[in-house]
C-alpha cells in the first residue's frame, strides 16, 4: 500500500513539473461505446490527464460559477439533477405552457473557436489557456468549413469541433459554451420560467403564442453558436399533460412519476444483475449498492407501488425467493418485521416452496441499512398498516388492523 501511494505521489509531482515547465501533453484516449440510454462514444483519458482536468476545473470554477445563472443545474456545486427537478416542478405548478428544447448531438458539435473566445474573456493567464488549447486539440469529432464572403473561392476557414464525452473538463466547458444562451433567454427575452441541464432546457409561460415566438428566437440564437435544436425534441405543450425533464414527468397537481423508458431500462438491467448474482458472477454487495442507489433516485417520485411491483418478480436464489420493494426487512414464514411503506429499501418474501430461507442470505436483509431509516416499525408478527387505508389510533399503536374491503 505504501509503495502504491509512493508511485502515485511521483506521478502527481511529475505532472506538476510538466505543467510548470509548459511541456505537458495529453495522452491517448481509450474509446468505447455505450448503448444505454442511447448509443454514445465515450473517451476515457489516462489517469495522469484526469489529474490535470481536475486541477484545471478547480482553477476555472471560482471564475465562471458566479457568472452562471442560478437556474443552470448541471455539474455545479449545490446543484444537480434533483435540484433541477424541484425547480422545474415549481415552474410546472406556476405556468400553463412549457417549451421543451434539446440540442442535437451537443458535445460533438461544440465549436472550439467559439468556446475558446468565451473562456478568454474571463481568463487572462497564458499558461492556463495553453493547457486548455491542448485539451481541446486532443479530441476532434469533425471540422466544419466556412466560406468567407470575400468573393474568393479559396477564402475558407475550418472550425474544429467536438468535446470528448467522459472528461470532467468537457462537462464544465459545456456549461460555459451555453452560458450566452442563458443570458439571452433571461435578459433579452426576459423569460422568468427558464432552466437548463446541460443541453436540455425548458421555457415556461402563460401565453402560448408568445412562448412559441420566443422558441423561434432561441432556435435562431442556437444556430449562431453553430449548433442546432433537435427537431423531434422541440415541443410546446400544456403543463397539464406533463413536463418531461431529467428522467421524470412533472404535473401541476403535484404528481411526479418516473419516465417509462427509464423504468424499463432499469428493470432489464436489474434482471441481468440478479441473474449474475444467482450464477455467482456478481457479488450480492455490489447488487445491493446498485439497487439502493436507484431506489433513492426513484423515491423522488411517487413510486412506492412501482418499486414494489418491480422487485416482486425478481429471484436471486432460485425458485421461491422473489424480491419485493417494501419496508426493507427480510421476511420469513413465521416472523415479519414491518416498517413504514415510505422507506426506500428492498425485502424478500419467500413463497410456498420446500426451499429453506437459511440456505442463502436474504437479499432484502442485505439491502437494509445498519440502522432503520425511519422510526415507527411495528412489532414482529404484526400486520402491516396499509397505505391509503384508515385505521384507528389503537390499531396504529398496537400494529393491528382490519382487512380493507375490496371495491
Keywords, separated by commas or semicolons:
four-stranded antiparallel beta sheet, disordered C terminus, alpha+beta, about 15% strand, about 400 residues, three-stranded antiparallel beta sheet
How would you portray this structure in words?
It is a single chain. The protein has 407 residues and is an alpha+beta fold. The chain has helices spanning 2-21, 47-64, 81-94, 112-120, 126-137, 168-188, 208-224, 260-278, 284-298, 304-311, 363-367, 393-398, and strands spanning 30-34, 40-44, 97-102, 142-147, 156-161, 193-197, 200-205, 235-238, 243-245, 248-250, 256-258, 314-315, 322-324, 347-348. The longest helix is centred in the middle third of the chain and has 21 residues, at 168-188. The strands form five sheets. A four-stranded antiparallel β-sheet has the order 6-7-3-8, sandwiched between helices.
